[in-house]
């Protein structure tokens, strides 16, 4: 009998598989130079805070050169840092210092479109119809005898048509170009070989500087349907809380050809084995979602189900089950997120005020108890709500103008963070913040919350720490546990029991050692709108 040959030692799990990512919206995080807009030196000064919070990695929203028509998602030079945020040197310093503190740094990349100020687009305007320069974008003649109607009926995500007509060099009305988002964000034509080649260059540029990975914007976009046919225009649901209206039947997204693009980008990622790619994938169908995280495509994809789910036990359980199922079939890891810079903040979504706070506390505990990577949007750890009464004159989201002042857009979830002191701008800046900060945030500052054990910030710190040190959070799976109506309970492979009380009355907890609760246990019971972690 042959002696058993030991198989290869199992590979250690990649760092990102169960990492806690912290999303920095740089404009709103911390301003170092008094211009009212957050920047990279400001972020660097706050790395100690992020270390204290206990996060494993940052996701920094776009900081590349940009005219800022859409908060930096309109990139004019993808291989440079905008002076508003600092410069390449500042970025290098930030990466170094973050690494020194054992925090990894990922950044946004925007493959679907450029800024209209990008050298390629400027060249395309000058070069004329049929030129190779125009072929890098979607330029088309208009419909009708004089070409005055857009090439198809596609609407822009920010309102109005997805096409803008240009004036040709000879002064005559000319071709139209496609922009699924703002007119300042022309869509790139990924069938033109210059486009993937340049994007690969951008990826290597940042990876060689020490970046640990990318959040890929609109990762389900890029590939457009052949011939750009008219589409059925989806109606926006009245209670829609996120900006990116998504509908699996929208032909502008999730075209099968996008997977070839991801496979190509993955070969670049594989040159840097430490690095992670995380796609923004607004796709509901589990199989189609899972396709993005097959072993040769993205490492992770944002699953937005929890962020779209009200505080309702059945709906939360469905969201968790669905998110797990979506990745299980392809052997990928799940991701969890309650909010981001495009979505109404969770405290507001869950009802606002004390109830919204209590539910947000419970939900971060539920989220951190799940297997997989967790994404925290800056300010969530302070329990910041949406600010929905910003003065109209202050609004900057392109949605506000493009919708003819009918939709306020996303500024309400982008108000700068309150750091210290009693009055706005609460140490965010020495100047005037780019969006006004409410005076009542005096009690929500980092300074105040660090002092209180019962603050949202303290809960985040305790929960993140427990998650990182306790073996009970281990293992890839979970099992639902019997629970009274209106409640949820699941058990992780490692032994952690997470209980959510979504009723409006206290409940008795199962037997076990209580590790943490989102609201103090009262008279031996877990209060309404609360969560608990136990081990048995
Ligand atoms: C998704 C980003 O999250 C959003 O902020 C941006 O406006 C669009 N993509 C367009 O880049």
Labels describing this entry:
alpha/beta, Oligo-1,6-glucosidase, domain 2, binds 1-deoxynojirimycin, five-stranded antiparallel beta sheet, eight-stranded parallel beta sheet, single chain, Immunoglobulin-like, 14 helices, TIM Barrel, 536 residues, globular
| CATH architecture title of the largest domain | Alpha-Beta Barrel
Mean pLDDT: 95
- Hetero groups: 1-deoxynojirimycin
Q: Please state the overall shape, judged from the principal axes of the Cα atoms.
A: globular
Helical run tally: 14
Rg: 24 Å
Please identify the structural class as seen in this structure.
Answer: alpha/beta
Q: pLDDT under 50 segments (min length 5)?
A: 238-242
Here the CATH topology of the largest domain equals TIM Barrel
> What is the CATH superfamily classification of the largest domain?
Glycosidases
Strand adjacency order, main sheet: 11-10-9-5-2-1-13-12
Please provide the count of β strands. Answer: 20
What amount of the residues lies in strands? 15-25%
- Helix coverage percent: 25-40%
User: What is the count of distinct domains?
Assistant: 3
What's the N-to-C terminus distance? 44 Å
Main sheet attributes: strand count, strand direction, barrel closure:
8 strands, parallel
